[in-house]
Specification:
By secondary structure, the protein is mainly beta. The protein is built from no helices and four strands. The protein has one domain.
Amino acid sequence: MHGILGAAHSRVSFPDNNTFIADSSSTDFALKLGGGVDIGRRTALRLSVDYAPIFGSNNSGANGQGVSTANNVIFGIGVRFK
């Protein structure tokens, strides 16, 4: 099992005829939790799964304040040699 927390930063710009008509950036809370299992002894098959949500703010919801969450799931498979 493992876990880590931190921040996710993104920036978006839309140019129009060499002038920027929109420029936006945000830094949001990010988290990653996961674990894995080895199947076998000397040569093992390793299976893992991680859940990595990013909790972002947006302008929807009551009073223009809302929260959107990007629910990211990562699956992994590999071979381990001991």
